[in-house]
Amino acid sequence: MVQVSTYRKIDGQKDFVGELTEETPEVLVLADEDGQTIEIPRDVVAKARHTNTF
Prior knowledge:
Elements: E1 2-10, E2 13-23, E3 27-31, E4 37-41, E5 45-50
Antiparallel strand pairs: 1-2, 1-5, 2-3, 3-4
Pfam family, one: DUF150_C
Protein name: Ribosome maturation factor RimP C-terminal domain-containing protein
Domain Ribosome maturation factor RimP C-terminal: 2-49
């Protein structure tokens, strides 16, 4: 699981948590808890980090 914060809102939010399913030089692709795919352009990523779930 990763947690990503962005400089601007994407679909009304700036904080995302999900499984990193794809990574390219242009975009990060996350699958959230509902299985929805979220594409986050790298140029708006403020912070991305690995999270632990217990």
